[in-house]
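Lecture notes, unit on protein representations.

Consider one protein chain, 256 amino acids long.
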Amino acid sequence: MHIERIPVDVPTRAPTGRTAAYVLGDDDALLVDPPALDERIEAELDHVGHIAVTHHHPDHVGAVADYAAATDATVWCRYGREDAFVDATDAEPDRTFREGTRIETGSGSVVVRETPGHAREHVAFEAADALVAGDLAVAAGSVAVGPPDGDMRAYVTSLRRVIGMAPDRIYPGHGPVIDDPRATCERLITHRLDRERRVLDAVSAGNETLAEILDAAYEKDLSGVRDLATATVRAHLEKLAHEGRIDWDGDRAVPA
């Protein structure tokens, strides 16, 4: 199946400053994550039959309502997240999907794969041996995961699931196409487990508040990203507490 990648300039915290929209198929195609109006997306609209998003963050959904109004495309959203979808996109969904749902394009089926973690409704779209994966993975750096929308346990599980799926290529929302999915997912898991160890070490050393744990767990300048790092540490604390490795009440953490 042909996959057209269209990086669009859009307000985003991603280092690239762009979010990639994707068109899957050549006829009755699926448009994924239209982040803003763009003439390159508009050139594809005549053969778009479906619109869907990987998740509801603003830098992935900005043009959903516009392109839904401009086409007769079927608008899809995650089952159980219909209200959140409307709030995020200002578009009413026509149909819902869940794990394993097949969206039929003129070039074949696109299969929905649940990949929560970065966001609770996050999904990826499997087409042949490729995975259009939103903010699940990036070729370099890491993905922000933070409460209340993000869940570190779910995120790591989703990465492991993708390793098991063994796609040939991952098409991410930000940055270049990933030609080594297994190595990339393993790198991201290793990064998360290393940060988790640093957070656990910080708690074991007597740091209790979120700010104290953050400063102990990071050894780099957090200027401009301190809020993201804080959310990440909170997500790690919630994961460690769920696993019974620390006691965390939302304000203070102590060894279990």
